[in-house]
Amino acid sequence: MRFLQAAALAGGLVLAAPANAGDPAPPSLAGRWALEVDRMSQPPEARPRSVTITFKDIGPAWRMDVAITDPAGAVLRMGTDLPEDGGPVTFERNPEADSASMRMPSPGVMVLGLARDGIPASTRVYSVSADGAAMTEVASYLDAARRPFLRVNHFVRVPEGEGTR
Fold this sequence. Notes:
This protein is mainly beta and 165 residues long. The protein contains 1 helix and 10 strands, in the order αββββββββββ. It has one helix at residues 2-16; strands spanning 31-35, 50-57, 61-69, 75-83, 89-90, 99-106, 109-116, 119-128, 134-142, 148-158. A hairpin with a 2-residue loop joins strand 6 (99-106) and strand 7 (109-116).
């Protein structure tokens, strides 16, 4: 009888231990990401030449920097520090928004709310693939008829030290 109790106790301890204690940390948004422009839903003539987003964990906030090269070759750079507590911040030089707020509900996922003049502009969800090599941006807007629609963009991680694409 004691043997069965000891076996049950040992089995319970094994089940209570973390099963994946040696697994690597989940993929992070930190790093530089290049938009796969050819996968955009817009017509080719309306697409930017390139877009890069860089995320950096700076402690109680995340730094987000964006560089957009338009079809004519002009580059627009913008960025802001996004507090992890969801507090609103100014987002300068952003053509869509003048303020932003962010939360990270789980590792590798960021929800970003953008507004202009106090009116919601879009909500974006960034999520990193399990292998950490790709990131998807789902952006929610209102169309001209004030109906919601979603746009999905696909990014690839830019290896450290590599130039913009």
